[in-house]
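1st attempt posting a full record on here, be nice pls
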Amino acid sequence: MSEQERIKLLLNFLSNQRFLVVATTWEQLPQAAVVAFSSSGMEIVFSTFDTTRKFRNIQSDSHVALVIGWDEYITVQCEGVARITTGAEESECKRLHILKHPESEKYSFDESNRYLKVAPEWLRYTDISTDPEFTFEIRR
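the predicted structure (as tokens):
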């Protein structure tokens, strides 16, 4: 499978998923949370309130790990850097997020709700429903 085909498979998978687990660290201790997400290409967008542990952790150390999917024996693991969006980028992330998660619109007007974007540095796609399992990695 070519890299273009792998990326297309990955993007299709991401577009059909709604939630992910984000892992952050605080004082060298891991913390994880489930969040709704959307995507812009391979960049992952999620929102959180600026009062949450994950927001505080990302402000301190922007490196995150994500796990997406698990219901149909397919997962994507991702490591990357999260950044807090502002201005036009924040508006676009908000638009994308509400488009995928209309139920989140009620939070979009709260000034403490912030939109973060993760730029993946490493991704691993794994499908264990096949024999042998199908897996590939992408590094950026």
